[in-house]
Every structure is written in C-alpha cells, then in structure tokens.
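## retry 2 of 3
previous attempt timed out at serialization; input unchanged, resubmitting
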Amino acid sequence: MITYSCGEKLGAAEFLQFAAAVWPGRYDADKTQAALDTTVNITARDGGKLVGCLRILTDGYFFGTITELLVLPEYQRRGIGSALLRLARENTPTLLYFGAQPEAEAFYEKNGCKRSLKSYIIER
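## retry succeeded, writing output
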C-alpha cells in the first residue's frame, strides 16, 4: 500500500539512491542535504521504501516552484505522480510554477495544470 507524507525530512543518502533510479547523476551528499532541508518534501512510500517525491521551494507567501517530481520507473502509471501533485496543490501557501520536460506535458495537463509563462535559464 502506498502511503503519502507532506513535510517529511529526507536524508541525502536515501534521496540520492532513489533519485539515481529516476534521474542519474553525480551529486554531492552535503549539498543535496542542504537542498532537501530548504524544500517542502511530499513523499510516497511503499512499505517504507521511497517510491515517489515532489519537492517545493517556496518563500511561503509570494512564490513557489516544484523543483522536481520523481517516481520510480516501476511505480509509474499507478497514480502516484497525480497524488503527489494533488497533495502539493493542497499543501502549498502559494501558486506553484514549474518547468516540464516536453514528454511530461500531457501528464501535467491531464492533472489540471495550465500552461503559463515560458521559462528561461541563466547558466553560471
């Protein structure tokens, strides 16, 4: 059974192991922990195993953004991402803005998200 939690404190080791299965990369554990500590973390667990996570970065009043929505590949297409989005909508103090990969746009639109601003990046 999938259980959901809002505001969970996540550890970098668990998160990085989970994220590597969805979005492989080489990440610094200390910087990851600092990032996790600054976001509202909404999680999905199956018997204690982290299977989905949505993170919100917000100032608590004016602005919020979804930094990522990740679900383990073997748990995708089971409604977990949709449930995480619903919990984000119910538990954020602000509007949420976010970017989406082109292949994920239909998922977000199916879940009631509306196209808004174009996004831009500034590289270091």
